[in-house]
Design brief:
By secondary structure, this protein is α/β, with parallel strands linked by helices. It has five helices and seven strands. The strands form two sheets. It has a four-stranded mixed beta sheet with strand order 1-5-6-7.
Length: about 170
């Protein structure tokens, strides 16, 4: 009886699950504009500036913060900038949108900080069924980050891959 050989393990393929890059132990928190609205409809600059001035921003220390409004309201663009300015140096990141979008941004920040040398001349397989927000966007960002150092990138599982990139042969 012949020994079973794991050809995939011997191939030098590097399986990448982007879910592994999701920030561990990160906290997420939302800032809802609703409590600061005038008559539940719109922001009044003077009142909003007072609300922002008296708000306890330290509750967002080292958190990924997402800014949203839980009701239909008229919000001027500068309001998002004003709140964001208060979170600089406090929050790990600021996202305009939902919790899911904040998680995506946190993952993208992790990918941006990635040391790509670990993938130097590597043959990567990016796992297709990752439990991550907006997988297409995150996969694309990962590809842009690592492609310059890889010899090939594939999508899927080791037993069934779709070729995405192959480094051109040197002439």
């Amino acid at each position: 009886m012949s020994e079973i050989v794991n050809k995939i393990a011997q191939s030098g393929l590097i399986a990448v699950d982007l879910a592994d890059y999701c920030p561990k132990n990160s906290e997420f928190a939302g800032f809802d504009f609703e409590p600061s609205l005038w008559q539940g409809l719109a922001l009044k600059e003077k009142d909003f500036r007072e609300y922002v001035k008296n708000f306890d921003w330290n509750q967002f220390q080292n958190k990924h913060v997402y800014l949203f409004c839980s009701v239909e309201a008229i919000l001027p663009s500068w309001a998002f900038m004003l709140v964001s300015s208060k979170l600089v140096g406090i929050a790990d990141s600021v996202t305009i949108g939902s919790l899911s979008e904040a998680k995506q941004k946190a993952l993208e920040l992790t990918i941006n900080r990635l040391d790509v040398e670990q993938f130097l001349d590597g043959k990567l397989i990016v796992k297709g069924c990752s439990d991550i927000p907006n997988p297409e966007a995150v996969m694309s960002q990962f590809l842009v980050k690592v492609q310059p150092v890889c010899s090939s990138i594939m999508y899927g599982e080791p037993c069934s891959t779709v070729p995405i990139y192959k480094k051109p042969k040197q002439k």
